[in-house]
Amino acid sequence: MNEDDPLDLIEDYVAECTEHLATIEADLLAIEASRGAVDERLVNRVFRAAHSIKGGAGVLGLVTIRQLAHQTENTLDWIRSGRIAPTPEVISVLLRSFDVLRDLIRNYRESDRVDIAGAVAALAALTPHHCPAQEAL
């Protein structure tokens, strides 16, 4: 394999993302099941997966994928820092966002033409700046 071949790079990226996305759903559901006792190991693993997806998208110029991965990463950072709790609502928004990422990655050639404003807004609404004070930790 020639690592300088853009097609090889993108195929490797898609394969890596597919592996990350395969474990993210189970990890998020396990985080939700913890009922407030946040398992830092799981949160960090999902955060690192989102970070990897974002980083690869940035290198490959996949702007929309990078933007949505960045927003999921921010939300996960809020959870791991204890500023928001991994409530069922928060986990549901994250799961839907990762579903959108999965679709974008599968169709990476068209991904920059997809409107992700709804997914980004749903994630942004979870941050303490948007949540009522009693919902933020």
> Number of DSSP helices?
5
- Globular, elongated, flat, extended or rod-shaped: what is the shape? globular
Distance between the termini: 48 Å
- The fraction of residues in strands falls at under 5%
Helical proportion, percent range: 55-70%
Order of helices and strands: HHHHH
In the CATH hierarchy, the architecture is Up-down Bundle
Structural class: mainly alpha
Question: What does this protein structure show overall?
Answer:
This protein has one domain: HPT domain (Four Helix Bundle (Hemerythrin (Met), subunit A), Up-down Bundle), CATH 1.20.120. The chain contains 5 helices and no strands. Helix 1 packs antiparallel against helix 2 and helix 3 packs antiparallel against helix 4. The longest helix is centred in the first third of the chain and has 28 residues. It is an all-alpha fold. It is globular.
Descriptive tags:
mainly alpha; globular; 0% strand; 137 residues; disordered C terminus; 69% helix; Four Helix Bundle (Hemerythrin (Met), subunit A)
Brief summary:
With 137 residues, the chain is mainly alpha-helical. 69% of the residues lie in helices and 0% in strands. The chain is globular.
